[in-house]
Amino acid sequence: xxxxxxxxxxxxxxxxxxxxxxxxxxxxxxxxxxxxxxxxxxxxxxxxxxxxxxxxxxxxxxxxxxxxxxxxxxxxxxxxxxxxxxxxxxxxxxxxxxxxxxxxxxxxxxxxxxxxxxxxxxxxxxxxxxxxxxxxxxxxxxxxxxxxxxxxxxxxxxxxxxxxxxxxxxxxxxxxxxxxxxxxxxxxxxxxxxxxxxxxxxxxxxxxxxxxxxxxxxxxxxxxxxxxxxxxxxxxxxxxxxxxxxxxxxxxxxxxxxxxxxxxxxxxxxxxxxxxxxxxxxxxxxxxxxxxxxxxxxxxxxxxxxxxxxxxxxxxxxxxxxxxxxxxxxxxxxxxxxxxxxxxxxxxxxxxxxxxxxxxxxxxxxxxxxxxxxxxxxxxxxxxxxxxxxxxxxxxxxxxxxxxxxxxxxxxxxxxxxxxxxxxxxxxxxxxxxxxxxxxxxxxxxxxxxxxxxxxxxxxxxxxxxxxxxxxxxxxxxxxxxxxxxxxxxxxxxxxxxxxxxxxxxxxxxxxxxxxxxxxxxxxxxxxxxxxxxxxxxxxxxxxxxxxxxxxxxxxxxxxxxxxxxxxxxxxxxxxxxxxxxxxxxxxxxxxxxxxxxxxxxxxxxxxxxxxxxxxxxxxxxxxxxxxxxxxxxxxxxxxxxxxxxxxxxxxxxxxxxxxxxxxxxxxxxxxxxxxxxxxxxxxxxxxxxxxxxxx
Length: 696
Known about the structure:
Helix 3 crosses helix 4, helix 6 (147-160) crosses helix 13 (313-325) and helix 17 packs parallel to helix 18. Strand 25 (578-585) and strand 26 form a beta hairpin. The longest helix is centred in the C-terminal third of the chain and has 20 residues, at 676-695. The chain is an alpha/beta fold. 34% of the residues lie in helices and 24% in strands.
């Protein structure tokens, strides 16, 4: 399939090719017929991309303090690598898509349904069910494709609760502003348009609205005339600007106890004096409506009961489609141009050149697009598949894989063979960046070659299944923690391992034990003296439902998905079996403390605290033993006090042991050594984490 992507570093938009994505439960695969270029948002992205680095920083002042905090905790070079990756990472663009369902794993949709969604400019998109809606038969594609933008406008309109004959200002008459005006027309309100682009006057007046250009006219005087000195009842700010003028002007012309709602974007330098005198209400409208950016709503397809949240994202979308069906809305007059997907460059040239442009449609030739179930995209490369065990087959394309693991394997001159993930854009980027031979559309193809090893960097809930496939196909495995997220998964894995006489190498990336700082500390500890270990984790909160870690069906939760790292680290320092363990959980704050006791009377306390700040280091380890206190501060520096020759050591950047972990794995491959005892230790660590989770 083909799709559009943009490089944020230079603004360039390109037509790329990748595999058709696979679905998980609650998703649909849509073959696109039309997509809408949102001229405001996509022009902003183009201009951002074409700006220099200083302009990018200037326009993102809110990120500066976060940048300095990151430098303090992770080091300058590590932080700069992250910034470079963010700035030059290609992104898929577009969020208004109409097409036909080709495959459905959702009970709400079936193959052949015509739907609208917030999908990309792409021949195929996979969408979660709460982010798409069936299109009524009476509504044509050219109209339906506007309903995503319509739901953005409608969500802001619902917040002002318009009444018949009220005076409502639409500040900013771009595409969202025009759509808002069309929807408001159905409420019987008097609409006043404010915009600094004189070219928009004609359209506003043709639609029957008053138009005011604050650059050429006295805005306050005009509003006094049109509202009989009352002021505007409500104002919808639909601008896309870094200026504070829209909000400043709105605070001057809003009536007492009026409402200002920001749908677009502007600087929030608001006059407290004016707002105080008028007791005006200011609100920000978030995208399509309640549910947007809520992990449970978008990813897990959990709906809000209508009696508690009447107008969700999806119900707003449905409302716009019904208004079109009833002929109370028509957006077809907003289309300035329509181009085939192949002519995307002409479309975006228009976006940059014609500032008063309303909308552009991209059309897709459905007859030319063909789904191949096991489609494989080949890269032009001379690399051939060999029997070398250093050939890498990758599952996953997330940040850990992209930013840490693959660069380290490349540094060690590993041959990159095949890659698969459920996100075609990310997979395609890694294919190009690291030179994989093939991109697979199905993970099973990763296991068809008997040689080489599998890098498993997928969501936690599929690790055990993928390890099992690797073991059965005699492929060596480098897997991100954890091995499993429930007892059944671990039991199945343990059974296979015990019964396999020719077990391939299984290496779990408990990387912190491989940090050079961990090794230095351990080398300076007396292994015959019991230790008291205190590990404090200043963790971001996962309780708000915005992180995938909070989705325990996917991650296993922080105890299984994260704390296993520190159980393993404590084991590394003590180097003795754990004889008992317990956990105490705070049901209010969600903090918890893990207690480990070893058979030599050593103990470890692992404190997970979620109420801290990113300005404080995330990980702190203290080891009390034999008259010394050893400290690792966020894997950047170490110190030891007492009877020790070890002096303070500071690294240039954070080193959590990933590089040494990868080297250890490669050395095992070279020497053809199995690590069965280490695998049994992985299983033990996972069992402990599962039991602790059960007791919390």
